[in-house]
Amino acid sequence: MPEGPEIKRAADEIAAAIAHRPIVEVRFAFDRLKPYEPQFASNLVTAVDPKGKALLIRFNNQLSIYSHNQLYGKWVIRNAYSYPETTRQLRLAIHTQEKSALLYSASDIEVLTESEIAVHPFLSRIGPDVLDASVSLNAVIQRFQDKRFYRRSLTALLLDQHFLSGLGNYLRSEVLFVARLHPTLRPVDCDNEAIARLAEAAIAISRRSYETGGITNDPNLAAQLRQQGVRRQAYRHWVFNREGEPCFVCGTPIVKDIAGRRYYYCPNCQKKHPSRVLQSLLNGSTRSLLLRMRQGLMCWL
Fold first, then answer.
1. Superfamily assignment of 4-118 in CATH?
2. Rounded average pLDDT over 57-67
3. Which of 24, 30, 78, 200 has the fewest Cβ atoms surrounding its Cβ within 10 A?
């Protein structure tokens, strides 16, 4: 399933292709949405807003197209009316004179007014988006300390879009590893230092994945391994999908566990009792980022 970084990158690509250009045609695969098609012709896309794992494409006619990729949804940008060869089913097509934005395989698509967005069952309840530059480190710390959430296991909490939006399965494993926390812990089991590490990691690793196109490992280490001919899947993540492989920090074999959905961790670096994060985990740019966040500056350089 695409997670927040992938959806935000898709939003960037869609906006670059079709925003602020006259719409020639919008086509929906679902009969219930077809009556809306004429209402989009000759209008403009004014913004493409990622909402965790969902997207809102806003138009100047005060309507928005909501989509959630779910497990198999995929956006494709093509030249106008040029369709890829694929077995996927086309669910939504937005055409301008130059480009087409095509959504395949997703089934959760709606047309919403502003008032409907405010009460939408997903959009109205999602938590702070860790990729939103306006979301502060303190806001994420407070989320972990909120009594509505602090007795739930971290493995469940980090998948709950009502808690923090944009996180998903691979980010869950990576955030817990960088924070040096065992997956079975709950926020209530963690001291203030551990909670701060967890909040920092949730923001920093998500933003790293967005900036690098899905790499959550140390960028310098990833670059070295790539130059050595190591395949991308082997250097992309710290622990996710690396069962039995040596931990990049301590060499201990990575463990895979299943709690609804698979997760991965290092039994040595992520002991049951929270321990101090190893500085060797974070490269200089990440340490600098965390320091800036602590000072209230939420920029990524």
1. MutM-like, N-terminal (3.20.190.10)
2. 97
3. 30
